[in-house]
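Narrative summary of target 7.
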Amino acid sequence: MTSPGLDQARVERRRREHERQAVVFGVLIAFLAVCGIFALAVYSGAIAAPFNRPFNTVGVAEQETFPVPCLPAVEGQPDGALPVAYSDVRIRVLNASGEGPDGIGQTGLGGAYENALRDRGFKVDEATNAAKNLTYSELRFGKGGIVAAYTVAAHFPDIRLVLDDRKSKDRSVDLLIGSEFEPPLDIADVGISADTPLTNAEGCVPTAEIEPQPRIGVRESTDEESATPAR
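Modeled conformation, tokenized:
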């Protein structure tokens, strides 16, 4: 049989436990309510957030972006610029991947692209290492090479088009292979034909409104690098 004193002590202990639980839950609920009100105020712009650091996807901010030039009017092609014959497109392949020894580019990458482009009929003037490393592959060209660049771009799933400051009569195109490179599309998936006008890139800008970028040069090789080129 339980004594009245023990029963009373048990009741008091349970009462104190319930009081402590009520205090703890009350504090938690109040804290959550304050957090919710603060978040709502920040979201609505009523107060400034205590931090102002943008969220960046890894790799996206590593390389500057440039406006893409629109296709020019071509004499004798009133419906729009037609693709340039592959044999008339001069390409310089530059390995800008920076993944090889001493950051000079993944070995053999430039040569692989050179062979792929030659097999498709393009004229490759040179395949070597770029003086600058890039994250994403680019086609660089002057005002005279816009149609040729669009023609080459059709062979890649996603490639950046950058107008540079080479002479306006220079129709050559530089292919710079970045570290996040993608191989050319299968030839059957290239969506251009000789008798169908090319389509402007989405959001393109008239050439006159673009400030051309400096042309990226070739990396000067040391004697050791010359013996085992990374292209």
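Residues 51-61, 223-229 have pLDDT under 50 and may be disordered.
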